Amino acid sequence: MKTFVATKNSGKLAEIEAILAGSPLELQTYPQYVDVIEGEASYVDNALLKARALRRQLHDAGISAAVLADDSGIEVDAMDGRPGVLSARYAGVDASWEQRLFSMLAELRNTPDGARGGRFVCVMALVLPNGREITARGIVEGTIAREVHGGSGFGYDPIFFYPPLACTFGELTPQRKNEVSHRRRAADALLASMQTRV
Fold first, then answer.
1. How is the beta sheet containing 133-144 ordered, strand by strand?
2. Contacts 24+ apart (CB under 8 A), 23-30
3. CA 126 → CA 49, 56, 146, 167, 187, distances in Å?
4. Can you give the residue ranges of every domain in the chain?
């Protein structure tokens, strides 16, 4: 099924393409995709917002296809679940990823090791050509490291410590991360839901 991905994030796109390789979804990008302003309420709302926006843009261009979008973020227990859906805007809309990482490390500087729990959350939204919408969630638990480790991945990967593998996501190869990530879990849940609902 021809499926356009609603993202301009190259790192996210590469992960989605790798994770869904061999699935029924034949992923493509739409170069003219115009990003939407995300809300602050929920991952589900944001994922659907992006998917619906691209669907409208494709419709206006005379293209009928499925659309896939995701919204993800990091939730830190010691920060009362922040930044969550605001993860890409943490430390300011125009902040670089390096600034976001070091701002979070600074905010957690005095937080003891036992209170540094957190998780990555991803919600994927698929809008089928007939307009039916399917959403699925994936969560991976970990802790926030005290310093940056590894240069792989993107976003908060270098400070997200994953206890089962005893390293940060930033220290994993892309292939290994894609086996255990929140995005993988959301994709698996989405594909399972498709089998029962499509």
1. 26-29, 2-5, 66-76, 117-127, 133-144, 160-162, 167-168
2. 23/187, 23/191, 24/191, 24/194, 25/1, 25/66, 25/68, 25/126, 26/1, 26/2, 27/3, 27/68, 28/2, 28/3, 28/4, 28/65, 29/4, 29/5, 30/4, 30/54, 30/57, 30/58, 30/63
3. 11, 14, 36, 32, 10
4. 2-197
Question: 3-class SS at 30?
Answer: coil
H/E stretch holding 187 reads helix 182-197
Any catalytic annotation for residue 71? yes
List the catalytic residue out of 70, 71, 77, 113. Answer: 71
- The CA distance from 50 to 53, in Å, is 5
Q: How far apart are CA 176 and CA 89, in angstroms?
A: 27
pTM of the entire predicted model: 0.94
The answer to whether the Cα torsion of 12, 14, 20, 26 is positive or negative is positive
- pLDDT digit string, tens, across residues 13-42: 999 999 999 999 999 999 999 988 888 889
What pLDDT score does 197 carry? 57
Q: Read off the pLDDT of residues 89-134 as tens digits, 9 standing for 90 and up.
A: 999 989 999 999 999 999 999 999 999 999 999 999 999 999 999 9
Query: 196 pLDDT exceeds 80?
Result: no
- CATH number for the region 2-197 comes to 3.90.950.10
